[in-house]
Amino acid sequence: MTIRLVLLGRQGSGKGTQGARLAVHYDIAHVSTGEMLRNAIRNDTPVGKVVKDVIGKGSLVADDLMASLVKGRLGDADARTRGYLLDGFPRTLPQAHALDEIARARPINVVIDLEVPRELVLQRLGARRAAEHRVDDSPEAVERRLALYDEQTAPLIAHYRRQGVLAVVDGVGTPDEVFARLVSAIGSATGVTARGGDGQSRR
Ligand code: AMP
Questions:
Q1: Are strands 166-170 and 3-8 parallel, antiparallel or unpaired?
Q2: Degrees to nearest 5, angle at CA 83 with 77 and 88
Q3: Whose CA is nearest to atom 10 of ligand 1?
Q4: pTM, whole model, 2 decimals?
Q5: How remote is the C-alpha of 52 from its chain's centroid?
Q6: What is the Cα–Cα distance from 184 to 186, expressed in whole angstroms?
Q7: Is the confidence at residue 24, as pLDDT, over 60?
Q8: What residue ranges line ligand 1, CB within 6 angstroms?
Q9: What pLDDT is attached to residue 186?
Q10: Exposed/middle/buried for 176, CB within 10 Å: 0-12, 13-18, 19+?
């Protein structure tokens, strides 16, 4: 059985770290749109050239471009046969509608809202700024990304609640505690406990 998951959460909620670990745990593709875009910039591809300034400012890349990137990636053999975890998409209602279309034949099993209060993500992003030096972790870009999340991404929660696929998970705690909650929420929603390694090993 394949599983298809969406992980929603503010920047700094831990969704990147947890997403990578869940993808190993369930042996599914980890599709992070932020990573895809950062790779495109690093490799100076045509997409990279278009999105570079947008990302640096902490703004959102155009919905159409994002939808076509995601559609392409979810059509790859690994995502089709094993399933996937989407991290960073959808971020707007038009993107959620695009995903409804893309996933029509093979619907999303569960959408997780990883909940972490704003004050805590600000602390975590401050620490990341010192450790990773991401261009979009500047204080201005962080403010902008958090505001965009509240405006554009939070409405997705109602969209998925209406579809009956939403699971809310508390993202406050140690990484292991949060991971255990995620696995338990996914288990309740899909009946699948684990498929891959122990969630620690690398593929
Ligand atoms: P992330 O690593 O998910 O925080 O993404 C980093 C940046 O990439 C975001 O601040 C946006 O500029 C851009 N980005 C990633 N995913 C999307 C998306 N689904 N829609 C629009 N922009 C995105």
A1: unpaired
A2: 105
A3: 58
A4: 0.89
A5: 19
A6: 5
A7: yes
A8: 11, 33-34, 37, 54-55, 58-61, 66, 88-89, 91, 95, 136, 145
A9: 96
A10: exposed
